[in-house]
Amino acid sequence: MEIWNNRTTGTDFVLLGLFHCILIPKLLFTFIFLVFLVALIVNIMMVILIWLNSHLHTPMYFLLSQLSLMDLLYISTFVPKIAIDFLSGRNNISYTNCGIQLFLFMTLVGAECLLLAVMAYDRYVAICHPLHYSILMCPTVCIFMVAGTWLGALINAFVHVVYVLNLPFCGSREIHHFFCEIPALLKLVCADTSLYENGLFISGVIFLLFPISAIVASYGQIFSTVLRLELNMGMRKALSTCSSHMIVVILFYGTAIIKYFLPKAYHTAEQDKVVSVFYTILTPMLNPLIYSLRNKEMSGALRKVLRRKITKLISIENRRRKN
Fold it and tell me: What CDD domains does UniProt report for this protein, alphabetically (predicted)?
């Protein structure tokens, strides 16, 4: 630890990271890097498939492409820094880079919280008001809602980052985390932060509890409608999509609630790291896998693209042999 401190300036922070108390850090690093590669591949694939396939140019898949984009940016905010620190042995992060990382994290996590609620509303309209779907979820409305999620998250992130980085930091600059996160930074502040923590709690209610309430209300109406209707093929397809969305919601919101709403006495810094790994690294990989594996249209679009590419390669090879 003294080596790290000697390499930092007066305004640098030291990220203790994930590996300083792990017996087999190389194995953990390899696992995280493989998860990162899978997340990059599947999220990029989802965005490209939805963009190329005209049959997927619907509000549901537009929202799904936004989720993949957020997950792609989300995991790219953390893993490259983790890899650089592990390979170089330098765990310091500058004041400016810490602020940038915190801003990206707050923006992306806030946007994803709101987007999942919008996706639930989309499924509610599709199942409960199918005749009005083209009006209630027209392209203009869809773009407006997505822009609202990004704008709301940007404003929230800007307010928190500006306030936190202007707090007086003193004593140790060691952040017991693998990235700059508000709860970990507040432990380094030598001032009373109770008032700000109340504000942070209110922000959590807006970006976690309100969207969860909207999702629960939407799915309550969906299940009520389904119980009154005969389960035809279209309804089964809609319910399959809903079940995928619910799995994503439980994974993302469940870990976030454990982290931000569970009293401090019930979790330690090490437990916080484990929870954070789940919703910052694992979830961005699992989200597209859950949707693609359980979605016949996505898997069908992927098969068409692969079939087209294979056919093209075969034709090129045949022409080469003839020549």
Answer: 7tmA_OR2T-like
CA–CA gap between residue 152 and residue 126 (Å, rounded)? 25
Instruction: Provide CB contacts within 8 A for 106, sequence distance 6+.
Output: 153, 156, 157, 160, 161, 182
pTM score of the predicted model: 0.85
Structure-token match 């109340």, residue found: 198
Contacts for 60 with CB less than 8 Å, ≥ 6 apart: 119, 122, 123, 126, 241
Question: Tell me, which fold does domain 12-295 have in CATH?
Answer: Rhopdopsin 7-helix transmembrane proteins (1.20.1070)
Where are the domains positioned within the chain? 12-295
Spatial separation of the C-alpha atoms in residues 14 and 180, rounded to whole Å: 10
Evaluate the CA torsion angle 205, 251, 112, 54 in order and state its sign: negative
pLDDT at 3: 38
Amino acid letter for position 219: Y
Report how far residue 153's alpha carbon sits from residue 151's, in angstroms, rounded to the nearest whole number: 5
Joined together, the tokens standing for residue 231 give 């389960």
pLDDT at 228 over 80: no
Cβ atoms of residues 65 and 47 within 8 Å: yes
Give 79-94 as a DSSP string.
Answer: HHHHHHHHHH---EE-
Q: How far apart are CA 79 and CA 289, in angstroms?
A: 19
Give me the DSSP letters along 253-269.
HHHHHHHHHS-GGG--H
pLDDT attached to residue 268: 72
